[in-house]
Amino acid sequence: MKEITIKIDGKECKAKSGQTIVEAAKANGIYIPTLCHYDGLKPAGTCRICTVKVGGRNMAACTTPVGEGMVIESNTPELEEIRKAIVEMLFVEGNHMCPTCEKSGNCELQAMGYRYRMMVPRFPYLFPVRPINAKTPKIYIDGNRCIQCLRCARGVLAPDGKKIFGLVKRGGKAMISVDEELAAALTDEQAQKAMDMCPVGAILRKEAGFKVPIGSRKFDSAQIGSDIE
Ligand code: SF4
After folding, report:
1. What does the alpha-carbon distance between residue 31 and residue 28 come to, in Å, rounded to a whole number?
2. What is the pLDDT of residue 194?
3. Are the folds of 3-75 and 85-210 the same?
4. Mean pLDDT, to the nearest integer, of 125-131?
5. Domain range summary for the chain, segments of one domain joined by +
6. Can you name the residues that pair with 14 across neighbouring β-strands?
7. Cβ(63) – ligand 1 distance below 6 Å
8. 15 lines ligand 1 (CB under 6 A)
9. Atom of ligand 1 nearest to the CA of 151
10. Is the pLDDT of residue 206 over 90?
11. Is residue 200 lining ligand 1, measured as CB closer than 6 Å?
12. Domain 85-210, CATH
C-alpha cells in the first residue's frame, strides 16, 4: 500500500492508500465516532455518526477512502452537533431502557449519549412496536434496542457463509430478523461474538447475564473513544 499524506483537523497525518478515513484517523490517534463500523468488517455506512467534511461536503468517514492531500474536518462544532442529533434520533426511534439492559455500561449507544452530554432528545419518542425473539437456544434478539447497524449481519455467518441476521421491511418499519434454523446451530463462541459485536443490547446471550456488575463495565469509567484519542 502506498503511503500518502492527509490532514485531519489541521494535523498532518500519514495514511495508506486503501484505508478509510476512520481507519487512517485511528492509526494517527484521532477518534472519529462510529457505531456501525467494526474493525475487520466491510463498511456499511448505515449510522452516519462518523460524518466528516471533505472539500466542504459531508461524507461518511467509515466508507470514504483516503486520497493524497485530502483535507478532512472532523472535530468541529457543526459536525459534533450533527453527531449528537444522530445519537438522539437513534434513542427516540427505538425503545432503549438503559437501567434494565444487560448491555448497560458496555453499550456504545449509551456511551455516545454520555459523550455528547445528551440529556433529553430534541425529537419526540416514536415508541415503535417491535418483537423480541427468544425462540433460539443461545440468544435472544430484542428489536426494541436494534439500531440497524448490520454488524451482526456482516460479522456472524453460518459455516457455509449464509447470513443468520438481516433486516426486514423498509424505512421506519425496518427491523432486525434472524434465521431461526441457522441461529439454532450457533456455537457458544458465535453467540458470544454476536452479543459482543452488537453495539447495543439487541442481541443477548441466554443464561449468561450480569457476570460483570454494572459500575465495573467498559464505559462506566472510560469515555467511548478514549482508547484512541
Ligand atoms: S441486532 Fe445489534 S448488531 Fe444487529 S443490526 Fe441490530 S444493533 Fe446492529
Report:
1. 9
2. 97
3. no
4. 95
5. 3-75, 85-210
6. 5
7. no
8. no
9. 3
10. yes
11. yes
12. 3.30.70.20
